[in-house]
Design goal:
Number of domains: 2
Shape: globular
Distance between the termini: 38 Å
Structural class: alpha+beta
Oligomer: single chain
Strand content: 25-35%
Radius of gyration: 20 Å
Largest sheet: 12 strands, antiparallel
Number of strands: 12
Length: 302
Amino acid sequence: MRYVKPMLRLTVFLAACGAVLAYLDYRSARASVVDHLLGIGQRMAPYLDDGRSTEGPRAIRINGVRLFAAAGHTDQPPQFVRKWYLDRYAAKGDGFDDVGKELKKRGALPEDMQALNELSFGNDTQGGVAALDFGEKLSMAQLKKRIEKFVKTGDIGDLARARYVYYEANGHGGTRFLTVWTDEHFPMDRLMPTDGKDAPGVDLLDVPRYPGTVRVLSAEEHGMPQRVVVYDGAGTPEAAELFYRARMVELKWESDETFARLAKKQGKTSLRFDNARGHEVVLDLSANERQQGLTVVAIQTR
């Protein structure tokens, strides 16, 4: 279970992409929060293997770990997107597939779990799929060697490439989605702060931290001014909204009430502020998996 918590933290961050998607809806003149970056690495498959539905890849760093991401959209509903990616990355006909089938026979895996190398969460409106892409069919002996190396290094790149898609209904029968994938190295330990300490990174300039929260993720895009910082702690979205409305004004930020109203209509608590320095910040405030738990996503869009 050593690497379960880091994956949960990664899921918290990626699920917060809903705040970014809401921002894109509001500022439709911008094709993306970040533009004109040519990504590299072994790219995750675009939906339906059709590159026209997905933007070019962007290189990002989360707690110093390099990832790639690409946003996309389709007129098809979210459940189609989820099923396509589950089918696309399910391990079939190899050692990992054999292990999964044997565990299912023993009742050690849920019946609705399609393959041992992937998992999904959410529903037909919002959710995600995470998978390990081995790049080739592996024998049991090859799989054993990869697992042994991964246990020693903690680098998931020694086992497989990580693949993730976050999806969300767009309100018109279609889907917005964000694909995220890893390159050759992906040290899991760097994704999870320990002993209540902040994750590597920095806070956004002149954006206060909600009292009692800890920085769990810090992300940036290579060569771009955009930043994302995620905090976790006790509290509620309602209390955090009152805090940020008061403190941001004190720090000379101006609130965009139109953005806040649009977010409320979508069932979200999201705020947007800009200041005289030309900076723009979006704050997404949401309850996390713990009772009375709060996740704060602070996004510097420029």
